[in-house]
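Milestone M4 deliverable, item 7.
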Amino acid sequence: MERPGRFEHSRFLGDKRTQLVYDLDEWTDADVIANIVDAGVGLCFGPDTLAEARNRGYKKATHGRTPRHRKPHA
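Output delivered:
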């Protein structure tokens, strides 16, 4: 999948509403990523690792699960 322009140098993209992190190298559903970018609730991590995302309270997204939307914290 092609990475969104704002997150072109990031591998992991977090959704502030659901506290889920998406691996852009493995994720195939472009609609989910486009929804995050269009809503302006995307977050990248530094360093760009899954361990850093988990350190901030995010869980890795899996295909087929329905995310629970929450109010963004920041």
